[in-house]
Amino acid sequence: MSKFKIISIGGSIIIPPTGFDIEFLKKLRDLIITRVKKGEKFILVIGGGATCRNYQNAASQVVQMGSVDLDWLGIKATVFNAEFVKFLFKDYAHNQIISDPTKKVKTSKPIVLAAGWKPGCSTDNDAVLLAKTYGAKEVINASNINYVYTADPKKDPSAKPLPELTWKEMRSIIGDKWSPGANFPFDPIAAKTAQKLGLTVKFVKGTDLSVLAKALDGVKFDGTVIN
Q: Could you confirm whether domain 4-226 is CATH 3.50.30.20?
């Protein structure tokens, strides 16, 4: 029996700040379902993205929000995003969203959706914990960047892409502290957990489905591999 493949999908890939990309959603659905029909199974972990940050920013302008409050608000945004994606896959998807990544769900469905769990980390960490729970050796992280860079390329024109690096090198870039709504290439808490587990994480630009397919196939792709 095939194991579940874990894909962590950034919320802004599913629901961009500029509005839904219907053609992309159709193509993403087709890609996953085509592979499901060949026997593959997936756990799709959906992030909060811009939706999450919009709620957090708005609430913070009205009342004082602590970090735990902000995290819970973000978690609820991930749940709604995951519910949306679940409906896109309809009968292929398990009817419940995974809320606890440390527990297996009993399902005959080939697609399972997951969202945020606890304050103090992002859905990146949930994806890593799901890999541990389901015995997966790797996680594919599909976001709005095509590589991990030496610095934020939006702020530093000299930032260079890193096709491959170790978890020690990755953690030296992102640090060790989590901040609610932060836009890290990967959650520092998740990076620490992944390093302990000896997990491989592949970073791909989520909107480029040909690259995502190559990462799933285990062949060379344009992106970053961390192990």
A: no
118-142 burial, b if ≥16 CB within 10 A, otherwise e?
ebebbbbbbbbbbbbbbebebbbbb
CA dist., res. 67 & res. 17, Å (int): 23
pTM, rounded to two decimals: 0.94
Query: Closest Cα to residue 33, out of 95, 80, 90, 82?
Result: 90
Q: How many CA atoms lie within 13 A of 190 on its CB side?
A: 29
How many Cβ atoms from other residues are within 10 Å of residue 151's Cβ? 12
- Cα 137 to Cα 130: distance, rounded to the nearest angstrom: 11
Gap between the Cα atoms of 66 and 36, Å rounded: 42
User: Which positions ≥6 away from 11 have C-beta within 8 Å?
Assistant: 46, 47, 48, 49, 50, 51, 52, 77, 78, 81
Q: Domain ranges in the chain?
A: 4-226
CA–CA separation, 213 and 140 (whole Å): 10
* Token code pair at residue 172: 């030296």
Predicted confidence (pLDDT) per residue in 37-49, tens digit: 999 999 999 999 8
Q: What is the pLDDT of residues 45-97, one digit of tens each?
A: 999 988 999 999 999 999 999 999 999 999 999 999 999 999 999 999 999 99
- Give, to the nearest 10 degrees, the angle between helix 123-134 and helix 188-197: 20
Which residue, chain included where needed, has tokens 């932060």? 182
